[in-house]
């Protein structure tokens, strides 16, 4: 015969387990990132060792979010770059970090901000996806999958 304390412990444990699904969405939301990656795609010329990734970063929080790095298992180097035209010449500069203001979006698009991937460790072809990991200043990681589009894609 079970002792009364064991019955209460078993009952309390069963109650906690049965209520867990009701709180699961809250637990998941607490672990999700305030930074959304939308419409991610990559443009890579066949036979080259570099590519550019484009997407929109949307900060859904009330605080600024800072991207301090990027990585991909298919490229040895991934950097935030920005293309600009100065005195009629196209220039590219690297960003060490990128701050996305609260509630704002930043577009990575041809002729502007982009992720430069180089040193490919695997072949990627049109229609395949390139995994990207954005590293935030608070240590969080945001995963994205960018679809490879044809060279003439906009």
CATH topology of the largest domain: Immunoglobulin-like
Which shape, going by the Cα principal axes?
Answer: globular
Radius of gyration, in Å, reads 22 Å
Any idea what the CATH superfamily of the largest domain is called? Answer: PCu(A)C copper chaperone
- Share of helical residues: 10-25%
| Assigned CATH class of the largest domain | Mainly Beta
Report the total helices: 1
Give the total of domains.
Answer: 2
Classification by helices and strands: alpha+beta
- Helix/strand order, N-terminal first: HEEEEEEEEEE
Largest sheet: 10 strands, mixed
Mean pLDDT: 82
Strand content: over 45%
Number of strands: 10
Write a concise keyword list for the protein shown above.
globular, alpha+beta, ten-stranded mixed β-sheet, 50% strand, 1 helix, Immunoglobulin-like
